[in-house]
Amino acid sequence: MKKQQLAVALSLAFASAPSIALDGSDARSIAMGGTGVASANHLTAAFYNPAQMTKFDQSDDFGLLLPALNVSLHGTKDIYTDVEHFIDADKQLGKDFTTGFDATEAQRENWIDALKKLDDAAVEANLGLGFAITVPNNTLSVNLFSKTATATKLSLHIDESDLDITNKRDGDTMASTANLRAGMVTEVGLAMARNVTLPYLDEKISLGISPKIQKVVSYNLYDRIVELGSDEFKLPSDYNETTVFNTDIGVSYRPYESLTVGLSGVNLISQQVASPNINGHVSTFMVEPEFTVAAAYDNGWFMAALDVDLNESKQFDNTQGTQYARLGMELDAFNWAQLRVGYSAGMTEKSTNQVTAGFGLSPFGSLALDLAAKYGSETDMGVALEFSLNI
Asked: Which domains are seen in the chain, by residue range?
């Protein structure tokens, strides 16, 4: 096996991406642990809870988010070290395993041990891009938005027959496989929200809805690891796609001026798109409903927010779902600069804990630059950037 084969396989996870479902779609939210259902403003509300579009200052007449960009990577623990270990072990072996061995017993054992560690190793890459144009008002706040989220996952599986290298015959090939799955959702929608007075209670709640058109793409590569290092190897060009209607809904309520509670439902219509059949293998990319309950305290210079996912969500069939409880805080210095921190606590085995942080610069309270980062481990991290205008 050529030493480049695993490196090529790993690089495909990133090169093929055009979100795990992402923890937040804009830099402010990501810096605050992925919160947003009760803490988003009118500009980013369409990404979390359309009802939050009623949250604006009377001086706000127009908002532009152009763009919000985020990327995240997640890999099996020590996957990069393990891959380097195998490449070195394969190089020391000195010969392709199908042509017989002159290697020492120690070199063979080292090669087998390195290959074993790659079993069920995986790398995920997610990319998100969002835009929004909003016109807030007391009659009906509207937000024209677009968002693209991609998710790419590379999984390695080691076949036990490859570990029995002493019985390999000339011409045998590795049976271990690499599976690259990718999905993309591009959506364009119009979010609308207004305050409604509850009869008999004289209390106002905010109701929001976001009808949208989605384009869902599913892609799949399934091949032997040995083929990925071949000079003749080419990525499959086929993919399946569909265009569908979907919708988000949300509710926000302020029992006190500084306290907001919210509930949102995103992607209420479940979608599943199967990839083309590649070497007898089909991958299904999934867009599933996600429900979140949240609360946020905001006194003007300090905000604390808590979002809790009510259900698990997953992007591919035959994978474990993710579910989080998210906490975020923000300090605002005269609407000119913001400091943010957060924490995402995983509620399932698949969900990993992450710490988040970021800052914002908004001179004159209109033009803003926001940066964010999240970190779970050396193989689990992400960054986000956004520009916005609010006048």
From this structure: 4-390 (2.40.160)
